[in-house]
Each structure stands twice: as structure tokens, then as C-alpha cells.
Design a protein that fits this description.
The protein has 17 helices and 21 strands. The chain is α+β, with helices and mostly antiparallel strands.
Length: 636
Amino acid sequence: MTGKTLKIILAFLLFASSLVAQNSEKVKTAQSLFQMLETYHYNPPKRNCALSNHIFESLVKTLDPYGLFFTGETISSFKPYRDSLCTPNSSLISEFINIVTDKYRNQLSLADSIVDRCFGSPINLTETDSLILEPEDASKRPKNNLELEVRWKKWIKQGMLRSLMYSGNDSALINSPIIPDSLYAKGSLLAKKSMIREKRWINQLMNYSGGIENFVINSYFNSITSCYDPHSNYFSDNEKEKFESSLSKENYAFGFELGSNLNEEVIISRVLPGSPLWYSKKLDKGDVILKIKIPEQEAIDLTFAGIEEIDNIFRTLNGDGVEMTIRKLNGSISKVELTKGKFDTKENQTLGFILKGEKPVGYIWFSAFYTEFGRYGNVGCSIDFLKEMVKLKESGANGLIIDLRNNPGGSEGEAMENAANFDAKGPFAIRKNKEGGQNILEKTNAIQWYDGPVVVLVNGSSASASELLAAILQDYGRAVIIGTNTFGKASEQLVFPVGQRMRPRNFTANPPPEIKDFAKVTTGRLYRVSGKSYQKVGVLPDIVLPDVLDNFISRESALPFALKNDSVGSSVKFSALTKLPLDTMALLSKSRIMKSEKFRQVSNLNNSMKTLMSNKNKVTLQLGQYKNDADKRKQL
């Protein structure tokens, strides 16, 4: 044996032992995660075979949501472990993760070769066929690799049909009665684009940041938390940073968003207003990202990289500069140097203005209940909301419309601060913990800034803190709630650094650098001052208005493992305003809606969409029928 060969073997053994050590540490994290969930989750399920099977099924779906990698035979090979994924036996869990990782890697490699074979032969889009997009259970997945290849052929067909109809192809050809097969034939531009897209996706999974082993075990962690309730999550440190940024008014980033063009290349889809990049004018919408050069590292070729992969690269750069090679819209190639900076993101903002009609009415919209966790003072949406409200009041507004439609929520504290603007100190709601203990949510030393009439607009995407504010104003008779049933989330979460003496930690508090794992855990439930809950049912509007998006919205009641609706005995004393004639108002509104041509169109549109959406998991693969369905969707 030569010295060179010996060095290679030793290097491999060191690498292998390093992976084993990393996996061993990660498996310990799983045990800490279970312990944390059992200790702090509001309603933790028993660690038994049933929970283990739920975790197993969630993991398989996470790794392969479309049934394109795992076959029935593959899943059967995991059978010895599926009842034991809650076990404190770390060696067994480690063995399971290693086997899943190896199988997943092999099946991804197989899928890559299947894609090559599929595009190596003619693709027929005229024969009658159909595809179930997401297999509902293991019995709907391909039984073996032969059936897997058949499914891939169908998957590729639906991808090409989708690109053909929705990706801005020649409208004259697409809208003609007969679509020439040259558009999708073997070797056509569409076929090449589709092949690049599928291979890029597989490549992204095979080259996951941190390794495929990391992807599998992180998916396992999230499969664990998802089986406790829909809002408990595992976060790596990078994912924690993303979540923190989403709830903050200030953003620390490069200042752009990513998208893809018709050639499936990753592009700059938007430069964020107010960011350093926006002022520098170094990048433009539509610029194609070709390479990234991190200091003291080789340039990264992004030919087959996906949006998520590139996004992860940028997010992991903590203030470091980066050189990016881009192709401008005119075809020229240039290099630009970028550095992260802090700026007020326009995603989290509050806007107010006067609606001029018979009487001037104020209107306020805000994107979310954003805040700065760990900071106190003039931060958060409640301060911005108050500023807008005072300006509108001074401008002579005779009433106020608060638009919470599509507001996903955020900080519970910000919701109560906003409620205090209308009803001072409360009480506002009841919090209940897992031991059954209750405490009243209220504000002290609050000032009522507005005592005029208020309308709150809501829909099925008004969630969490949005629902809390709507419920408070409704219970006190301070507002008329108009729209459709809200989302239905009446629970609260705390974030814990996993394995660190079980101490909850605010997002912006600086944990020790060795902490890389975090868990957002549902620790309590919220109830209205009456003792009733909007969990899983939502806040019901006083006046119902048809919503054009209602059939597209998935509410809490549709999510697996959602907490049930219940109520608590309430001894809370509160004084609501004189009850408004809501029944009369609702009847008058219904009469106006029935006479309104616009609302009649919305109702007809909803009925048509309901029909189209009734079987959205199944698509036709026949070109003519797919075109008909696509035309209907475009018209709607």
C-alpha cells in the first residue's frame, strides 16, 4: 500500500467519523426536543407507536411530497423503525437516520437518471392521462422503481403543460385551436427548460446547504414538532434568523428578493425600497445571477442552483461582502460587490389615509403585528398605528376602518397595545397554560386615543394577533367586524434554545454561539373575555361580505393536529358599550349585496372556483383538456 493511498484512506476515515459524531450530536438534539415538548407543550401527545407513525409519515411526506423518490419498496425497508421514532434509544434513531439518508441519496441519484431517460425519448401530450399531484398515503405511491419511472414521465408532462400555458409563451400559438407539437417536441426549447428545472430541483436536494444528512435530520426534527400542533416548529439558527426578520420592522439583508425567469434561471425579482442596494443602483430587476464569490473561497457556479439554495447562501453571510457575477437584460456580464446593511423593510409597515365620500373616513392598513423582540420603546406596529390614527383624527375623519385582511398576525403584545387605543386597559383576553392555570391579559396605564365608530375588515387569512384584536373590539362593542370567518388560531408560542436548561428565549436575545437549535413551542391558549375560543372556528364577522379569495384560503381547521375548540369558565368582569343593532345592520347589508352586480359577480366567481378547486390534487395530462382548464382559470 502506497503512502498516498494510506493518506486517502485515513482522510476518508476521519471524514466518516466526523459525520458519525455530527449525527450522534444531532440525535441527542432529538431527545432534548422531545423532552422540551413534553415539558412545555400545552397538550403533548403520548410518546407511543401512534405518535411514532405520525412522525414517520410526516417525514416521508417532507422528504418526498410528490411521490417522486421513495417507492413502496423503499418505505417498507423502514418498517422496523416506524414504531420506534419516539424511543429514547439514541443508537436506534441514529441508525434510522443513516438508513433514510442513504436511501434518499440513492433515490435522488436514480431520479436524476430517470429524468435523463424521460427527456431522451419523445413526450406525447395528446394521449388521455392524469396525475395525482400529492399521494395521500403510501398506497398511492409507486410500488417499485419501474412504477417510479412511469410517475416521473407523468410529472414531467404536467410540468411542461404548466410551462406551456402559464409561462408567457407565444400567445398566438397558445390561443390557437391547434397547438403545434414543435412547441414541446424532443429537443424543443420547452423540453430543455423543463429538463433543467427538474434536474436543478434534484441537484438542490442532493447539495443541500450543510449536506443531505443535515436536511434529513432537520426534516425529522420538524416532523416531530408538526405532530404536536401546526404552530410548533424546529428552527436551525439560520431559520430562526429568517423568522426573526419576518417579524421585525428593521431588516439586515442585502436588499433584494429572488425569482426565476422563463429559462428557470434565478434572477433579481425585486430590489427592496429603502435598502442600501436600492440607493446604490448596482442591480436591476431581471438581472440573472450566474456566480457568487465569497471572500477567501472559490466562486460558486449557480447554473443548477435553485432559489432556496441561493437564498440560504446569502442569509448565512453575516455582514461579509460578496462578489456576484450577473447577466444584465441586455446580455452584458458584470461583477458587483455587495454588503449586508440594516434598513426599514417596507414589508412591515402601517399606512393610513382618508377615504373621501359623503363623510371623510380614515382607513388604516398594516402588514403584520411586527415588533422588535427584546427591545422596548417606540418600536412595533402599535406605535406606527397610533401615529396614523392621530393624523387621521386631526384630518377630520368621522370614523375609522381597520383593514386586517390577509394580516398573518405576529406579536400578541402589539395586538393588545392596539386594542388599548380604543378601550384603554381591558381586560382583553384570558391565557390558559398546560396546568390549567389562567391569567387575565390587560394593560395598565393605557390611554384611550379614539372613541369614534370603527369597522374592522377580516378574511380567512386574518390570523393569530389579527384575530385577537378583532375579538377584543367585537367583545367590547367597539367595532363592527365585516368580512368572512378568520383563520382560527388562538394559541401562543414561546421559543426555546434546545437542550439549554429549558429556558425560553426571545428571538433577538443573543444566545451563546454554541446554540444552533431552537424550538417554537405552543405553550398556552387564548380565550375571549367571555371564556369562548376562536380556535379552529375563527372570529365570526358581524356582517358577512363575499370574499373573492375564500376558496383559496386554508384555515386552521384544515391543518393536521390543530388544537380543538373549547371554552373556559370566565369570571372576568368587563363593560361592553351599548349593543349595536347588528342584526338589522346585517339584514340591510345582505339586501344591498343581493342587489349589487359586483357582489353577484363575486358570488358567481366563488361558485366557479369551488368547482375548479374541488379536485385540485388531480390534473389532466391531455393537452386539449389541460388547455380548457387553464383557459377557465385565466378567465376567472
